[in-house]
Amino acid sequence: MCGCKRGKGRRLALMVALALAGCGDDAANDARAAVAAPAIDGAAPGQPAGGQPAAAAAPAPMQGASAAVGAAAVDGGRELAHPEGLQMLLFAYRLEGRVPPIGEWAAAQQRVRSANEFERGEVLREERARLQAVYDGTAQVGRLRMNVGASFSEYDASRGGYYLNAFTPGSLFTFSARPDGSRSETVSLRIDNPGELNFWALDPAAAQELLTKNGGQRNVTLDARLRITGISRRSDGPVLSATLLGYTIISTRYRQPAVLGELEFHDGKGG
User: Fold this and answer.
1) Which of 129, 231, 257, 270 allows an S-S link to 18, with CB 3.0 to 4.6 Å?
2) Is residue 228 part of a domain?
């Protein structure tokens, strides 16, 4: 059974990290750039407004879909934190063993096509270097970290806890990018854990205290940690599979992050 954990040191680090992620200022951009270079002009991030990946119902398995990633590729020790759509697309290229057409993408960018004949060569080199940096930033990655918006239910007295609506086995999150500035490409991320992933066990007093701490609101942010386990391909694009390792439940009321609890899944198994 999963439960809440409290740790002052970890709580402070998570609060600072989430504050950066939620501010949209230069500090937040610098934090994301530490993982990989920013997306190219015109690339659509994998998150809708608010910085959350878009969740969708899990589709039925596609006949003929096959794993295309070796164990070495998914056992990397690096973490890709809060990835944008272009990062996820290039990560999928790497896992599938495909070479991204960086030269073609760079040449198609608006700033390259609109540059005059004296500057065009240098602008093209800059675009190629930026795309290459994003691709290089996906090397030896085996884990992901992303923020997911969620809400929790009314208290279930029979079980003793809340239900969160973000994660269930088979949950699918989508990321999109326009690497050539026009045509959109989609990458999906599927949660492959067995068992229950969204029950937040609390005694009544703690549950009431946390609801009060969240200003009576039920919206929270889940700072999720995932391990990549494979990749397959569907008609609409690549699908990465991942095991949810756990998530920290955070209140961002009045843009003041506060840790409310944490769930962990040992060996990828739910409660």
Assistant:
1) 257
2) yes
| Contact of 202 with 2, CB cutoff 8 Å | no
CA distance linking residue 226 with residue 246, whole number of Å:
7
Integer Cα distance of 54 and 10 in angstroms: 27
Domain with 257 in it = 8-33+41-268
Is the pLDDT at 5 greater than 70? The verdict is no
E strand intervals along the chain:
54-56, 78-81, 141-151, 161-163, 172-177, 185-191, 199-201, 219-234, 237-251, 258-264
Q: What is the pTM of this model?
A: 0.73
266 residue type, one letter: H
Distance CA 91, CA 85 (A): 10
Joined tokens for residue 79: 């973490």
Distance CA 92, CA 189 (A): 10
Q: Which H helix or E strand runs over 28?
A: helix 26-33
Cα end-to-end distance, the chain, whole Å: 5
- Compute and round to an integer the Cα radius of gyration of the chain: 20
Which residues, at least 6 apart from 206, have a Cβ–Cβ distance to it below 8 Å?
A: 4
Tokens of 27: 């500090």
In 91-192, at which residue ranges do the beta strands (DSSP E only) sit? Answer: 141-151, 161-163, 172-177, 185-191
Is there a domain that residue 140 lies in?
yes
What total of structural domains would you count in the chain?
Answer: 1
pLDDT, tens digit, for every residue of 39-62? 333 333 333 333 345 454 443 333
Q: Kindly state whether residue 1 falls inside one of the protein's structural domains.
A: no
